[in-house]
Design a protein that fits this description.
Chain lengths: 471, 521, 276
């Protein structure tokens, strides 16, 4: 019986129950308010509907809380209980093995396909079903009780002079605030989780070894010197900016100063399409088209240098994946990040300055180079910073086209690895949550987060001050 | 008129200087044009390179077989339960292979030849047939016609993409004589072009193979003399060559350097010329799930996974983003807390997506114990990722509603909440919706965070709920792009085209919404 | 309004030598049937107007009457506006400046302009003045440039106030000082004509008085055309006045005559404050 409860479809039940609570609460409140109205002809402060909303709100609030707690913690709770009951033999298992065993149990419990499995597995699964069945039943019961309690409490408040609308609106405003506060919660969540895992990592590996060590070999041996990763990230971002900075800036100049209104209207969205293409598509393009091209070019240079006798050995590494390929494609990807914001700030330069320069007899290019660009410089710098931040945090292009080898090399045709590549490499596939190997990914994530945050904060501040100056 | 005063500007030097300045002006303009041109060229290059690659996956080759589903083969031990039937891939496969092999009575019956022949169709290709029979056991004993995909090596060869092959013509009326050992000899053939091509290709690791085909027969060139060309018969009879015109094919890569053997090529060419191997639209790309064999793989599971993920993302991020925007724009008091929220939102919009993946991995998988690889978790992570985008767009939409609307509503006695929800929100809604769709488009293309929460798993089953194991389209692109076989490239490009098509549709909807609801106050 | 008949007009200026009076006989700039269209909409209608050297010509009229637009024709600033078209002929030293052979860059080095709002470049005071001489290549070395900067600032009456802080940004000056900086900047290119588009409209009365004094001073060397909203200012600084209304040149003549005995009814209504 309890075991069958374990297979209750909780998602649907919870949703149905919540809908039921809301509709019941609403009707209860409204009917009560209307009864007053019919019997006594009272003048109500708030209309009947608001009394309905008020009662529904009180019904929903406690039930929703219970449902949320259930959704977030039921699995952990059942696993915890089950864990304490498991026979001796299980204690030799590592945490990760235990977790995957329990997940298999949960999966089997859901489909019911554990009849043919071995005896222990079947026993554990049926115990799992018992436990989760009682938890589910208890949750549903608690929700019903809470709903009844909330609704009857609120129902008693319904009276002609009760200011239901104000209460409902205050509740709604609180809810709106909570939605806005999610943004803060997300940041706090990011910082807290990265910091927590990183501290666990730094308890095993000294911070200085991590930040300044030159050997990274997290997969095979425990070497966690992240300097080559920082170098690779920096190098590829630099190549990207070599492409994106001039192209993006000149495109912005052309669009804002030279192009006709018509051209601008069609060209701007086209340019911004570059930012809308998923990065995995760029990665595929880099891997398939650009990387072989870079390799061929590097091989060509090698044989040329050997032929003319400058060197006797290949000068460039000419790897199948290379920093240059990833950087070039990434550069194309971040062009719109540079051009969009640059375009905005160039447009924000007051027309009077242009007039002044033209009236002095400056040509258009002199006006742009000597007056507009210096005036727009802070904004342009900010756009570059945002683009760099984007390039540093970009993942898929480098995962697919930059390579896995951690090393410091200035040869652009060699493969380099980056922070993001290593995070992906460390956290995909079999992961053990306590090993320094896994934890190091979070330390890398923390560095990445802090660096990009720094760039973003500076850029946003600069742009804001720039806007204040001209608006 | 009096003479103009002589100023330094009219001097020869000044004019020269002016010309130089004008030239610099033109140059500068050209730089701008070139930059814009480069950006647009990159866009066009990217799209066309991928479209070109994807065109290779629009069609593929299938082989048609007529088989009798004999009970001895389908259920050898008499157990005709659906599970047993599905498990008995080997039985179905043997039926298909033997039917095809029957076309080549001269091939010999050694185990090695049979094994070689097996490479034409992969074993798992019969799985859909097995499943069909398991669902409809009445088919057992019946005769059926089925089409199964040929293996990727054969498919690529027949598409001439790998190994590359060059067709050539043989002048009509060449005299054909039977040669020694079942071969044949072409007397006085005009094969100069073949000779030139072979010389150009050179002899690295062996000689390129040259085939002639005619109806169901295929022969391989063994000696090219001035007077006569000797061929070795690989499939069919010499008689076949006499009745019909000959077609030739040079396979540019020598046999030792390719995965498909000359014999397999001969079989494939023979089956194709008899119409048994046909090129058909590659619809299975949309109806099948992932597989380790490219010709059997499809994107259905990833497509459904993406849709489920988007469902979660949309249901969380859109209402939450809109409510947050309403709070910040309409109700927020100007204090430190709301200022902090503002700065936060702007910063979150620029946090690398992979960091959200790390958050999902620790918080959702670790702390809350939600299932790995599930669209639920992926959807939540992406919802957090696009929340700032949705909020910023929704705020812009709210700001575009003139204050007079609010004052009007307040003036007739509406509360602030009523003014916002009854009057401002309906007007701002189209704008909010466009922002939401753009956010969803961003989420649809995101890959990195999904990798970290395990949505990179090999998923052969179409997920049916948001807690099932699933993958998503961009992740599928990533996994397929990491595969070594050449055949994955066009497949990957085709999935990219599907993904880009979805994104284009979303953007078109945005443009149409904007057109429809564009309003000037 | 037949203005061409008045080209031999010789205003009775006092205190100028005979050689200067000689220059006044012929107009420095002679406009014939100038019309301006903005995206097909006509803003200025067939204006013919002579402008004399070493004097101040004031363009007055209600807002939107086309006086600023007309002023911008004189150094072809309308070229920089998309969709603006200028027809008619404007002769300067016998050359039609609207002809395509004339390079507006060269023209603008001869016709300086001062705008409604002071718009110093976001550079130092020194670089603001030095900008024109530098781009036009008027100087060979630093000493020469220093000399031009000093001379221009002196002529604009700003030297005493800024000589110790030439390296500070131009925007750090007060509004009136900024406007005089802009005048100095225009002078530095050694123009023959200076156009002023309501140069005092954003300044307080004291700064305005200072600029007006300066204009009177500059009149001795340059040909000045000033657009102004204030009739008092026109009366104070100009020798000749042209009244614009709805894009048409209604009346022009000696400032005294315009203000004391206008020939046209509309001019009188405007001057007496019945509209505008």
């Amino acid at each position: 019986m309890v075991q069958q409860l374990g297979q209750l479809p909780m998602g649907w039940l919870l949703t149905a129950l919540l809908v039921f609570v809301v509709t019941t609460g609403f009707s209860v409140g409204r009917i009560r308010a209307e009864r007053y109205l019919v019997s006594g002809g009272h003048k109500f402060h708030s209309r009947g509907n608001y009394h309905g909303y008020y009662v529904a709100m009180w019904g929903l609030l406690p039930t929703l809380l219970i449902a949320a707690v259930y959704v977030l913690f039921s699995q952990t709770a059942v696993f915890g209980l089950l864990n304490s009951e498991l026979p001796e033999g299980f204690h030799t298992l590592s945490k990760a093995e235990l977790q995957s065993y329990l997940e298999a149990v949960a999966g089997a419990a859901k489909t019911g396909g554990y009849a043919g499995a071995d005896r222990i597995f079947a026993t554990v699964t049926s115990r799992f079903l018992e436990l989760s069945g009682s938890l589910k039943a208890a949750t549903l019961a608690a929700m019903i009780l809470a709903a009844i309690g909330g609704i009857s409490y609120a129902r008693r408040k319904v009276a002609p002079d009760f200011r239901a609308r104000l209460k409902v609106e205050r509740g709604a405003e609180a809810f709106l605030f909570l939605c806005a506060a999610i943004a803060i919660a997300t940041t706090v969540g990011i910082v807290a989780s990265l910091l927590y895992e990183s501290l666990r990592f730094f308890a095993q590996v000294p911070v200085t070894d991590f930040l300044f060590g030159t050997r990274w070999n997290a997969q095979t041996s425990a070497e966690f010197g992240a300097l080559p990763l920082f170098f690779g990230t920096f190098m590829i971002a630099l190549i990207a900016m070599f492409v994106a900075a001039p192209i993006g800036l000149f495109a912005a100049i052309y669009l804002s100063e030279y192009a006709s209104v018509r051209t601008r209207r069609y060209m701007k969205p086209l340019l911004e399409m570059l930012a809308g293409i998923p990065t995995v598509v760029y990665g595929f393009f880099a891997l398939l088209v650009i990387a072989p091209g870079v390799r061929a070019a590097a091989l060509g240079i090698n044989s040329l240098l050997i032929n003319i006798g400058v060197t006797s050995e290949p000068f460039l590494a000419a790897q199948p994946t290379s920093a240059l390929a990833a950087g070039l494609v990434m550069g194309v990807m971040v062009i719109p990040f540079v051009s969009s914001l640059s375009d905005d700030v160039i447009n924000a330069v007051p027309q009077t300055l242009r007039d002044a320069a033209f009236a002095m007899g400056a040509t258009k290019s002199e006006t742009i180079k000597q007056i507009i660009l210096p005036a727009a410089l802070p904004g342009i710098v900010a756009s570059m910073l945002l683009a760099v931040s984007r390039a540093i945090g970009e993942t898929m292009i480098v995962v697919m086209a930059a390579g896995q080898r951690a090393r410091i090399s200035f040869d652009p045709s060699t493969d380099l690895t980056t922070i993001t590549v290593q995070i992906v490499a460390l956290l995909t596939g079999e992961t053990q949550f306590d090993s320094p190997k896994t934890l190091s990914a979070f330390a890398l994530g923390l560095v990445l987060f802090l660096v990009t945050l720094g760039f973003n904060l500076i850029a946003l501040r600069v742009v804001q001050r720039y806007r204040e100056k001209y608006e | 008129m009096n003479n103009p005063p002589e100023t330094s500007l009219q001097s020869e030097k000044a004019l020269k200087r002016l010309r130089r300045r004008r030239a610099a002006d033109t140059r500068f303009r050209m730089y701008g044009l070139a930059a814009l041109g480069f950006a647009l060229f990159s866009l066009v290059f990217l799209i066309s390179a991928i479209a070109w690659k994807a065109s290779g996956a629009v069609t593929y080759h299938v082989v048609k077989t007529d088989i009798v589903l004999t009970p001895e083969r389908i259920a050898p031990d008499g157990n005709a339960s659906p599970e047993e039937i599905t498990r008995n891939i080997e039985g179905f496969y043997t039926l298909v292979r033997d039917d095809l092999f029957a076309h080549f009575p001269n091939a010999g019956d050694s185990l090695a030849v049979r094994q070689d022949f097996s490479a034409l169709v992969d074993r798992l290709a019969v799985l859909p047939l097995a499943r069909r029979v398991a669902r409809h056991p009445s088919l057992i004993g019946q005769s059926v016609t089925v089409e199964v995909p040929v293996s990727d090596d054969v498919d690529l060869f027949l598409k001439r993409s790998s190994p590359r092959s060059i067709p050539f013509r043989i002048r009509a009326g060449a005299q054909i004589n039977p040669g020694q050992g079942g071969g044949m000899v072409l007397a006085q053939p005009d094969l100069r072009s073949v000779r030139t091509t072979l010389t150009a290709l050179g002899e690295q690791d062996g000689v390129p193979s040259v085939f002639v085909t005619s109806k169901g027969a295929v022969a391989r060139l063994s000696d090219l003399g001035d007077e006569a060309a000797t061929f070795e018969l690989l499939a069919g009879d010499v008689a076949d060559f006499e009745s019909t015109p000959l077609k030739g094919l040079i396979v540019t890569v020598p046999e030792s350097r390719r995965t498909i053997s000359d014999l397999q090529i001969a079989w494939a060419l023979a089956l194709r010329s008899e119409g048994i191997i046909r090129r058909v639209p590659h619809t299975s790309l949309l109806t099948r799930t992932d597989s380790t064999y490219p010709e059997l793989a499809g994107a259905l599971a990833a497509l459904v996974g993406s849709l489920l993920t988007m469902l979660v993302t949309g249901m969380v991020a859109i209402p939450m983003g809109i409510f947050a925007a309403i709070f910040l724009e309409e109700f927020a008091p100007k204090n430190r807390l709301t200022q902090l929220i503002e700065v936060n939102i702007n910063n979150l919009a620029a946090v690398p997506s992979i960091v959200f993946g790390l958050l999902g991995a620790t918080l959702l998988l670790g702390t809350f114990g939600l299932p790995r690889s599930a669209p639920l978790v992926g959807g939540l992570v992406l919802a957090l990722l696009i929340l700032p985008v949705v909020i910023i767009a929704a705020r812009a939409a709210l700001r575009a509603v003139p204050p007079s609307i609010r004052s009007g509503a307040l003036a007739v006695g509406a509360s602030r909440m009523q003014a916002v929800f009854h009057h401002v929100l309906p007007l701002a809604f189209p704008g909010m919706l466009t922002g939401a769709i753009l956010g969803m488009a961003r989420a649809l293309g995101e890959t990195a965070p999904l990798l970290l929460i395990g949505m990179v798993a090999f998923v052969a089953e179409v997920p049916s709920s948001t807690t099932d194991e699933a993958t998503a389209l961009p992740v599928l692109i990533y996994s397929w792009a990491s595969n070594a076989e050449r055949a994955w490239e066009p497949m990957t490009a085709a999935v990219i085209v599907i993904l880009l098509a979805l994104l284009v549709i979303m953007n078109v909807i945005v443009v149409m919404l904007r057109r429809k609801f564009e309003r000037r106050w | 309004m037949d203005t061409t008949a008045q080209t031999d007009y010789n205003p009775a200026l006092t205190g100028d030598g005979a050689d200067k009076a000689q220059a006044l006989v012929y107009p420095r700039i002679d406009c014939k049937d100038v019309s301006v269209f903005y995206s097909g909409k006509q803003a200025v209608f067939d204006v013919s107007l002579p402008v004399y050297d070493r004097s101040v010509t004031a363009l007055i009229g209600p807002s939107g009457c086309g006086k600023s637009t007309f002023l911008r024709c004189l150094n072809r600033m309308n070229d920089t506006i998309d969709g603006a078209k200028v027809t008619g002929e404007i002769f300067m030293d016998g050359e039609n400046i609207n002809s395509p052979e004339v390079d507006p860059v060269l023209l603008r080095s001869r016709v300086g302009m001062v705008f409604q709002k002071p718009n110093p470049f976001p550079k130092s005071i020194y670089d603001n003045i030095a900008y024109g001489p530098r781009i036009h290549g008027l100087v060979e070395d630093r000493q020469e440039l220093d000399a031009i900067v000093e001379k221009s600032l002196r002529r604009a009456g700003l030297w005493q106030e800024v000589k110790d802080r030439l390296a500070q940004p131009g925007t750090s000056l007060s509004g009136g000082q900024q406007q005089r900086l802009c005048i100095a900047r225009a002078i530095a290119v050694r123009p023959e004509v200076i156009l002023m588009d309501e140069p005092c409209s954003s300044l307080d009365p004291i700064a305005t008085a200072r600029i007006e004094e300066l204009i009177d001073e500059l009149r001795k060397r340059y040909c000045i055309v000033i657009v102004t909203h204030s009739m008092q200012q026109a009366a104070r600084v100009s020798q000749r006045t042209a009244f614009f209304h709805l894009g048409h040149l209604v009346e022009m003549g000696d400032t005294d005559q315009i203000f004391t005995s206008p020939r046209e009814r509309r001019t009188e209504d405007y001057i007496t404050g019945r509209f505008g």
